[in-house]
Amino acid sequence: MVKNEELSPSTQDSNQVKKMTISKICCLGAGYVGGPTCCIIAQQCPDIQVTVVDKSAERIAAWNSKELPIYEPGLAEVVEQCRGKNLIFSTDIESAIKSADIIFICVNTPTKTFGMGCGKAADLKYVELAARMIAETVEEGSGMKIVVEKSTVPVRAAESIGNILKHNVKQNVSYQILSNPEFLAEGTAVKDLLSPDRVLIGGEETAEGQMAVDALASVYKQWVPEERIITMNTWSSELSKLAANAFLAQRISSINSISAVCEATGADVSEVARAIGRDTRIGPKFLQASVGFGGSCFQKDILNLVYISECLNLPEVAEYWNQVVSFNTFQRSRFARKVVESLFNTVTDKKICILGFAFKKNTGRVAKGDTRESAAIYVSKHLLEEGAHLSIYDPKVSASQVKFDLEDPDKPEQFKRLVTCHKDPYEAAEKAHALVICTDWDEFVTLDYKRIFDGMAKPAFLFDGRKMLDHQKLMKMGFHVETIGTRLSQSSGPADARVESPFLPAPCPHIN
Ligand code: UDX
Ligand code: UDX
Questions:
Q1: Could you tell me what percentage of the chain is helix, strand and coil, using 3-state DSSP and rounding each to the nearest 5?
Q2: What is the pLDDT of residues 224-236, one digit of tens each?
Q3: Residues enclosing ligand 1, CB less than 6 A?
Q4: Is residue 7's pLDDT more than 80?
Q5: Listed residue (72, 67, 81) closest to 33, CA to CA
Q6: pLDDT of residue 365
Q7: In a 10 Å sphere around its CB, with 0-12 CB exposed, 13-18 middle and 19+ buried, how is residue 262 labelled?
Q8: What is the pLDDT of residue 111?
Q9: Whose CA is nearest to atom 3 of ligand 1?
Q10: Ligand 2 pocket mutation pick from 188, 360, 464 by most atoms within 8 angstroms of CB
């Protein structure tokens, strides 16, 4: 606990005060970032009153119910333990702002869909709205308020927040703006928050800035070892978040690029990943070749970095990072093309069963898995354009979400005619010409593939976009199997599985 050595923030004078005691935190935005983060703060800091507010009454009602708006392993238990004690979910945004020592901004920052920076730049309208609301709501004489940007933002966004606040400041109020980006991944949010690799806090390089940084650090120190709390200037902290996501995504695009070479040469990308990952300078994580990365952050943050680089007149830097995203697009369409080519170059009117629609396993906004930027969307759209009938099964994603993601407003009849969603994987696979695995849900490993095979049209194709199944076993069963980064020899299966694909790449002249 922080010792109450000096004055509380509401009565401080910046020349005298060296330490602030934090007793109330308010969080604007009860989404994937704000919700879990505040739950863990409340659990780990029983003396701090944490209030999470959101403009959406529906979302707040969900946080106050048994059906939380987000599914994360362990989260419901934390909410159960703290809700109504030191953890409040509310729509009373004003009261929460007025009484808070620290205000987290956790609103969404989507990619701009129009105007300058369309398709790349982060839209800061909600962050700006939040800053204006803070400026309007904070009362005269409130002393220092610490405003923390947790939403992923472009570099120097804190400056804009600071400008809005400082130009609308009331008497005896001052603001310190900190950057404290969140690194949690969906599906492991509780674990990531309880035991983060690091906590970044960026602040102004002034005495007041330092004091604010220390105050926020004192909150995290209640459960995070001190050496994992890294402080730096605001811009470094903002850039570090974008850079971290860019580096992670770059590893996936890098291994996926190698997967294409493996398929053309007979090398196996899993073996290559194992070999290079043993180099301690490289490390084994994030080297799983796949149908492509998805999720709300990687593409968005890289495009944001690309836009910033373009604005800074650094076109080579922009092009470098843009390639990570372009390659991901290539990987998705390469996989979709492989499906069409293997099925004798046409999927028109063939039934294809898509297993998995979420961008990765264990994601969950309750009742609907998270599909943001999911590779399944891109693969499905490609197959729809080729006239395939898709039967989609995902253990979490709802039919309405699939419709939202796949329906083309210009031709709604296409979706109606070609797409069906199923609650049962066996039903989805019945009479299908091919199974296409897009998400790494654990349950796909233990499905009864013999039963599935028996119900499928022959030859029965299986495309494993996640490299998660026992391919030899499936081929013995009779499947024609294709995957990422390995050229499988179909010789082990029964005769009907040994479909000669005219589309296998030509042997590499340097190798054969
Ligand atoms: C989002 C971004 O995806 C991420 O990059 C950023 O770092 C943080 O915000 P997430 O928490 O997953 O992450 O977004 P979302 O689940 O959409 O939650 C944002 C919440 O803010 C929503 O509940 C929304 O209702 C709320 N909000 C938004 C407000 O309360 N007020 C606003 O003005 C705008
Ligand atoms: C990511 C970052 O990991 C997290 O630190 C940040 O705060 C938000 O963005 P998230 O998008 O939840 O988290 O998921 P992550 O586990 O990083 O996976 C992103 C995508 O990459 C998924 O589609 C996943 O399937 C894919 N992936 C991941 C691979 O294809 N191969 C890998 O080796 C790892």
A1: 45, 15, 45
A2: 999 999 999 999 9
A3: 28-34, 54-56, 59, 106-109, 126, 129-130, 151-152, 296-297
A4: no
A5: 72
A6: 60
A7: buried
A8: 87
A9: 108
A10: 360
pLDDT digits (tens, 9 = 90+) for 267-279: 999 999 999 999 9
Catalytic residue among 297, 353, 421, 438: 297
**Is residue 34 classed as helix, strand or coil in its secondary structure?**
helix
* Residue 213 and residue 203 in contact, taking contact as beta carbons nearer than 8 Å: yes
- Whether 297 sits among the annotated catalytic residues: the reply is yes
Position in ligand 2 atom list of the atom nearest CA 183? 7
Per DSSP bridges, beta strands 434-437 and 419-422 are unpaired
Ligand nearest to the CA of 252: 2
- Euclidean distance between CA atoms 284 and 183, whole angstroms: 19
Give the number of the atom of ligand 1 that is nearest the alpha carbon of residue 151. 7
- Where do we find the tokens 């999470």? 52
Q: C-alpha angle with apex 446: 440 to 449, nearest 5 degrees?
A: 105
CA distance 461 to 482: 8
Residue 164: alpha-carbon gap to chain centroid: 29
Say whether 464 sits in a helix, a strand or coil. Answer: strand
Instruction: Report the candidate in 243, 54, 272, 238 with the shortest Cα–Cα distance to residue 154.
Output: 238
Q: Is the peptide bond before 507 cis (omega within 30 degrees of 0)?
A: no
pLDDT tens readout for residues 50-92: 999 999 999 999 999 999 998 888 999 999 999 999 999 999 9
Detail the DSSP E strand segments found in 218-300: 229-233
Phi, psi of 409 (to 5 degrees): -60, -25
| pLDDT tens-digit readout, 179-232 | 999 999 998 999 999 999 999 999 999 999 999 999 999 999 999 999 999 999
Taking the C-alpha atoms of residue 240 and residue 236, their distance in angstroms, rounded to an integer, is 6
Give the distance (Å) from ligand 1 centre to CA of residue 107: 3
Distance from the first to the final alpha carbon of the chain: 67
**Beta bridge pairs of residue 119:** none
Q: Kindly report whether the global pTM for this prediction surpasses the value 0.85.
A: yes
Q: How far apart are CA 4 and CA 113, in angstroms?
A: 47
Helices (H) and strands (E) in the chain — how many of each? Answer: 18, 14
Q: Which single residue is written with the structure tokens 């995290």?
A: 220
Task: Give distance in angstroms: CA of 410 to centre of ligand 2.
Answer: 32
Which two three-digit tokens encode residue 379? Answer: 């693969």
Q: Which residue's alpha carbon is nearest to atom 26 within ligand 1?
A: 29
**How many of the other CB atoms lie within 10 Å of CB of 204?**
18
Instruction: Tell me how far the alpha carbon of residue 299 lies from the centroid of ligand 1, in angstroms.
Output: 17
Counting from 1 in the atom list of ligand 1, the atom nearest the Cα of 133 is 33
